[in-house]
């Protein structure tokens, strides 16, 4: 597999969009727009790494948006999009990737098929862009009046990611530094490089105005509701606290487990994975792997949330039941609810955490450990 790095440009201010927050950090389907864009490339087998260019004022927003994704530090952008891309390319230069895919953060619906076509084009061409033919009649307007009707047969709408042989696009950017090109293919054109067009995708929308956020989903996408369930058990061991639903609770014992043994979040992870048919927690985080020893279980939940987001899905609600004689859950229940909502990135009204006992029956009744069960509802695009 050839080495391709995705460079996502997220340094813009979105003046046409308006509002106090740059559009790439607004929530869409339960996650920031930028996160959707990043995940699309992280899951693609032809992309070896993702790097993001951001505005220097957005570091806090960026860190929150990419939490748990394991990215390198972001690149600080420049005064224009062209400057920002060049700075991103310069940061990638020491790694010398073979290909680079330059993508606008405000296109969160990028599909793997478009990435496939761009990468395939790069096998034979230096510059490749996805584009769609124009279907509307194009008029040239001056002072409010039509002065000409354009021939649309050779016109198209250009999208991203635009793909390039890395050395060629870096050299082109260096040659044109300080100019004002609106996309990277235009830079290639200006230095005499041929640009191949491959098919784009009508679902690959660019969010430009606040009305675009109302789309929420690619046009024509039918959704269905899926239900998932999870169950987990951990025995007690010596210690002085347990971790339940992301909250440390004082107790006479701790819970035994390879990670932090958060039985509530483990059950929730399995429920989320079950709703989208992705197996269970052990498939992604096997206890035989030492990197997960003592790991906080919110990492597992966030991974399941990301898998749902990649599929264009959203979490409707979750319900977690903790089963134990002790510790008492009631005093901590609301804190647990808040914590779960924060991990999932959904409002608290969509989360429920409760507890019950087994009336002194079974291993939980004997005080040997804690069990948990979880159920979730997820809305997800209908599979073909």
**Estimated helix fraction:** 25-40%
Q: Please identify the structural class as seen in this structure.
A: alpha/beta
Radius of gyration: 24 Å
Beta-strand percentage? 25-35%
Number of self-contained structural domains: 2
Q: Please give the alpha-carbon distance between the first and last residues.
A: 28 Å
Structural shape: elongated
Please state the average pLDDT score. 90
Relevant terms:
single chain, 384 residues, alpha/beta, Spore Coat Polysaccharide Biosynthesis Protein SpsA, Chain A, 60s Ribosomal Protein L30, Chain: A, eight-stranded mixed beta sheet, 19 strands, 28% helix, elongated
Characterization of the model:
This protein has 384 residues and is α/β, with parallel strands linked by helices. The protein folds into 2 domains: 4-213, Alpha-Beta Complex (Spore Coat Polysaccharide Biosynthesis Protein SpsA, Chain A); 223-381, 2-C-methyl-D-erythritol 2,4-cyclodiphosphate synthase (60s Ribosomal Protein L30, Chain: A, 2-Layer Sandwich), CATH 3.30.1330.50. It is built from 12 helices and 19 strands. Strands 1, 4, 5, 6, 7, 10, 11 and 12 form an 8-stranded mixed β-sheet that branches. A 5-stranded mixed β-sheet has the order 16-13-19-17-18. Strand 8 and strand 9 (145-150) form a beta hairpin. Helix 3 crosses helix 5 and helix 8 runs parallel beside helix 10 (298-310). The longest helix has 13 residues, at 263-275. The chain is elongated, with a radius of gyration of 24 Å. The two termini are 28 Å apart. The mean pLDDT is 90.
């Amino acid at each position: 597999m050839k080495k391709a790095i995705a460079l996502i440009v997220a340094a813009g201010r979105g003046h046409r969009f308006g509002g106090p927050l740059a559009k790439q950090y607004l929530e869409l389907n339960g996650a920031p727009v930028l996160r959707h864009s990043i995940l699309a490339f992280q899951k693609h087998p032809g992309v070896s790494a993702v790097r993001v260019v951001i505005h220097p004022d957005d570091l806090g927003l960026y860190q929150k948006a990419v939490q748990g994704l394991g990215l390198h530090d972001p690149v600080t952008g420049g005064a224009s999009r062209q400057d920002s891309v060049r700075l991103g390319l310069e940061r990638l230069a020491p790694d010398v990737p073979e290909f680079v895919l330059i993508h606008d953060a405000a296109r969160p619906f990028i599909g793997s098929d478009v990435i496939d076509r761009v990468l395939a084009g790069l096998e034979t061409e230096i510059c490749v862009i996805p584009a769609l033919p124009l279907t509307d009649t194009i008029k040239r307007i001056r002072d409010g009046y039509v002065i000409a009707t354009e021939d649309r047969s050779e016109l198209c709408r250009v999208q991203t990611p635009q793909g390039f042989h890395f050395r060629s696009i870096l050299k082109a950017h260096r040659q044109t530094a300080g100019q004002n090109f609106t996309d990277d293919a235009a830079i290639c054109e200006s230095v005499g490089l041929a640009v191949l067009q491959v098919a784009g995708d009508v679902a690959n929308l660019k969010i430009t105005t606040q009305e675009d956020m109302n789309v929420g989903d690619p046009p024509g996408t039918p959704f269905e509701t899926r239900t998932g369930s999870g169950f987990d058990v951990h025995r007690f061991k010596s210690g002085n606290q347990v971790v339940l639903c992301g909250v440390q609770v004082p107790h006479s014992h701790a819970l035994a487990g390879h990670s932090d043994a958060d039985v509530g979040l483990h059950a929730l992870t399995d429920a989320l994975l079950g709703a989208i048919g992705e197996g269970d927690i052990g498939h992604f985080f096997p206890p035989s792997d030492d990197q997960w020893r003592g790991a906080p279980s919110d990492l597992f939940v966030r991974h399941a949330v990301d898998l749902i987001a990649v599929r264009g899905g959203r979490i409707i609600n979750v319900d977690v039941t903790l089963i134990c004689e002790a510790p008492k859950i009631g005093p901590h229940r609301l804190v647990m609810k808040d914590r779960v909502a924060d991990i999932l990135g959904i409002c608290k009204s969509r989360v429920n955490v409760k507890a019950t006992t087994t009336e002194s029956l079974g291993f939980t009744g004997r005080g040997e450990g804690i069990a948990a069960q979880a159920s979730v509802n997820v809305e997800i695009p209908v599979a073909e």
